[in-house]
Recover the amino acids of this structure.
């Protein structure tokens, strides 16, 4: 199975901050990397698919980059509604595996 | 708009069975692959099973192979997850999800989830 490792596991930030979350795969996954946002008690929401493609309706302050084994999710200017947990997921090959999550909370 | 509504969760004893359903609307169900995913209390996300648009392909996480069965009825726009021989470690919120790309690809819409608790 492909292991996905996210870092950091949590971070504290302020509104307006630039936030970067890293995801690494245990083997190459080309660009089959997706990012989801989850708020407490809610279902996850797709932000980015295929490493860098912004899902329809997602604000442009979210961006993704990377290929192969190293990927990043960047929030250019953190907004109050962005405090949540973020997960990366590989869809290169089953079983489709997720990173452990990165919790973003108020500094 | 896309809607996915899960049902069938509840409290069940270890070793018993449960069937989850997911009613889909707002898109042409028969054209898309579908997934089941789960999240144990306070834990991260875990993919459970996937099925192609026509049911000809399916796959499972190793820990549920031989116990869980994913199926679909395209005439009823409904996805199912039959869960047998349930274990305590199967306790989780189960999400039904629509695939955006290939049948094992990314998920673009999720249901609200249904809680399955396996406990004696």
């Amino acid at each position: 199975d492909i292991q996905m490792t996210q870092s950091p596991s949590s971070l504290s930030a302020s509104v307006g901050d630039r936030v970067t979350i890293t995801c690494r795969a245990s083997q190459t996954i080309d660009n089959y990397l997706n990012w989801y946002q989850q708020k407490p008690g809610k279902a996850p929401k797709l932000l980015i698919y295929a490493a860098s493609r912004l899902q329809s309706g997602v604000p442009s302050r979210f961006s993704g980059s990377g290929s192969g084994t190293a990927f990043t999710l960047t929030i250019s200017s953190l907004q109050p509604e962005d405090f949540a947990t973020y997960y990366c997921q590989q869809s290169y090959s089953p079983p489709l595996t997720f990173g452990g999550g990165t919790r973003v909370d108020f500094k | 708009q896309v809607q996915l509504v899960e049902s069938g969760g509840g409290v069940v004893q270890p070793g018993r069975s449960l069937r989850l359903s997911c009613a889909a609307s707002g898109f042409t169900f028969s054209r898309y692959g579908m997934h089941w995913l789960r999240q144990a209390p306070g834990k991260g996300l875990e993919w459970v099973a996937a099925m192609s648009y026509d049911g000809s392909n399916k796959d499972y996480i190793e820990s549920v192979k031989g116990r869980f069965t994913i199926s679909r009825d395209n005439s009823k726009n409904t996805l199912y997850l039959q869960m047998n021989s349930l274990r305590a470690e199967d306790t989780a919120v189960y999400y039904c999800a629509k695939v955006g790309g290939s049948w094992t690809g990314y998920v673009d819409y999720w249901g609200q989830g249904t809680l399955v608790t396996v406990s004696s």
